[in-house]
Design a protein that fits this description.
Blueprint lengths: L1 E8 L1 H5 L3 H10 L3 E8 L3 H7 L9 H8 L4 E9 L1 H9 L12 H5 L8 E3 L3 H11 L7
Antiparallel strand pairs: 1-3, 1-4, 2-3
Helix pairs in contact: 3-4
Bound molecules: inosine-5'-diphosphate (IDP) and magnesium ion.
């Protein structure tokens, strides 16, 4: 089933000029890029995006990092896109990520881990709607 997911090239990867390599991989793996935008999140916008994690010990550090510089948000479309993008990203902790994954290749730490991907259809719908309007996705 064709599905959409939200991907983010996080500030660490944008700062290190890795966006082009990551986008190339996305295209090589057969995703359609349905929408894409560069955005520098405010702290409040990062807190809203990661609201599900607000009780976690890393919440303040995570939202400071995510608002520390520009990021690139994308809507990716493919069969089974949510799982497909998470597989290509690799494990949250780059030390545990498989060879060839985005996080193994590009992440610096469990926090500065280069990319984000939605984890389920409900979160994908929320996260896509957080950044893009319906009219952007026709
Ligand atoms: P995910 O991005 O692989 O879905 P989540 O558990 O949803 O991982 O965590 C969201 C983000 O929070 C991670 O991508 C990472 O940037 C950060 N994070 C997760 N766990 C830790 C941690 O233990 N220490 C610091 N940052 C973390
Ligand atoms: Mg997550």
């Amino acid at each position: 089933m064709t599905e959409r997911t939200l991907a983010i090239i996080k500030p660490d990867a944008v700062e290190r000029h890795l966006a082009g390599k990551i986008i190339q991989r996305i295209e090589d793996e057969g995703f359609q890029i349905r929408a894409m935008r560069r955005i520098h999140l405010s702290a409040a916008q990062a807190e809203g995006f990661y609201a599900v994690h607000r009780a976690r010990p890393f919440f303040t550090s995570l939202t400071q990092f995510m608002s520390s510089g520009p990021a690139i948000v994308l809507v990716l479309e493919a069969a089974d896109a949510i799982k497909k993008w998470r597989t290509l990203m690799g494990a949250t902790d780059p030390a545990k990520a498989d060879a060839g994954t985005m996080r193994k290749e590009f992440a610096q730490s469990i926090e500065r881990n280069a990319t984000h991907g939605s984890d389920a259809p409900e979160t994908a719908a929320y996260e896509i709607g957080y950044f893009f309007a319906g009219i952007d996705l026709i």
